Amino acid sequence: MAQARTDYGKVIAPRPFGNAELTTGRLDIFRFLMIFMILLTIVSVFHVWSRFKLVDLNLQISESSRMLKEAEQDQKRLRLEAVSLRAPARVEIIAKGELGMALPTEQQVILVK
Q: Are 90 and 84 in contact (CB under 8 A)?
């Protein structure tokens, strides 16, 4: 029975409420949580910004692709028009009709040696 004898004063005695260790521990946890929340907010804002930028760049790429296709179609159309404008028959018709030109006679041709 000698073992059953204990000093309950130390076990039951409550700690003082304004303990410096308890306050310091809570401040450390609060600082850690605040830093963690700030970092989490920064990472979240960066993630949202990067996604927004990605969508914006994809829209710019699709717009540029559309403009490139239109420019290629215009280039093909202009090449076809240039070929048709350079046709010898068309040039001859314009020269005779609008400019009043005619093919030279044999007296107008001078051979240069």
A: yes
Of how many residues is the chain composed? 113
Put simply, whether the predicted model's pTM sits higher than 0.90 gets the answer no
* CA 52 – CA 60 distance, rounded (Å): 12
Kindly give, in sequence order, each residue whose CB lies less than 8 Å from that of residue 101, ignoring residues fewer than 6 positions away: 95
pLDDT higher than 60, residue 1: no
* Mean pLDDT for the chain overall: 86
Rounded distance between C-alpha atoms, residue 1 and residue 85, angstroms? 123
Task: Please provide the DSSP assignment of 38-101 as one string.
Answer: HHHHHHHHHHHHHHHHHHHHHHHHHHHHHHHHHHHHHHHHHHHHHHHHT-HHHHHHHHHHTS--
Convert the pLDDT of each residue in 4-42 to its tens digit. Answer: 555 555 555 556 555 555 577 788 899 999 999 999 999
The alpha carbon of residue 92 and the mean position of all alpha carbons in its chain are separated, in whole angstroms, by 54
Amino acid at 93: I
Q: Tokens at residue 60, please? A: 């710019």
